[in-house]
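The records we work with from here on pair a chain with its fold. A complete example follows; check for yourself that the lines match position by position.
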Amino acid sequence: LSICSRTVEPLEYYRRFLKENCRPDGRELGEFRTTTVNIGKCLCSITTADGSALVKLGNTTVICGVKAELAAPAADSANKGYIVPNVELPSLCAERFRSGPPGEEAQAASQFIADVIENSQMIVKEDLCIASGKLAWVLYCDIICLDYDGNLLDASVFALLAALKNVQLPSVTINEETGLSEVNLKQKNPLNIRKHPVATSFAVFDDTLLIVDPTAEEEDLATGTVTIVTDEEGRLCSVHKPGGSPLTGAKLQDCITRAITRHKEVKKLIDKVIKSITPK
C-alpha cells in the first residue's frame, strides 16, 4: 500500500486495511493503543495542584490538575460543594487548534466531563460540604491536552479519575466563637470517590464498522463516533453520540459490552499505579 494513496485517497487506503480486519498502525479493530498513567507529584509541572495525573493513550497525552479551594455554598444548594471541570486544547497540542478562547471541541469536551461527573456520581457534591450554608470545597479540575492524536474523551476521563484519586484535602473546621474557618494542613483526607467511571470511544466506518480508540486520522475519516461511559458495576453512566451514522441496538450493545471489559483494564492500571506510589 503506497504512502501516496494514503494522502490522495485516505478513506480508500483505510478501507483496504479494514477489509483485512486491521488498521494502518497495526492494531486490530478492537485493540486499544498502549495506555499509561502517572499520578501525583511525579508531575513537576503542576506541583501547585492538590492532585494530578498524566495519561497517555498512544500519542494522545492529557494532564489533569485538581485545585481545591474553599467557598460559600450556593443559596439553593446549601449542603453542596462544587466541581468545575475545564478541558483545554491549546494550539501546541495539534495544528487544528488555535490560540484564544476555547473552541467548540474544548467546550463540548468540558460539558461531556461535567455530565460524566454528574451522571456517574463519582463524587457526591454533599461530600464536599464542610458546614451547611457556610463553607464547602470547590474542586477546579483542569484537563489540558499536551498532544492530540484522537480519542480525547477517553484520555480526559481517565486523567480526571486518576487525579481525583490523588487528592488529599486538609481537615477544616469552623471556630464557633469567631465564625472563621480553621485549616489543619497536618491532617489530610482523600476524597470520597464513590464510583469509577471509564470512557470507551468508538469510530464508525461506512455506517457499519466499529473501531475502538480511534486516532485523529480515523476520527476525521469516520462517519460517526460514540463514547460509552460505564462504572465498576457495569452500570451505564453515559452514551455520547454527537451526530453521524445511527447505530443499531445490537451495535450499541456490542459497544457497551466492550466498554465493560475496558473498564476492568483501566481500573486495574489505576490501582496498580496507586499501590506503587502509596507509602508502605
Summary: The first strand starts at residue 35 and ends at 39. The chain is about 30% helix and 30% strand. The domain at 28-277 is CATH 3.30.230.70 (Ribosomal Protein S5; domain 2). The chain has one domain: 28-277.
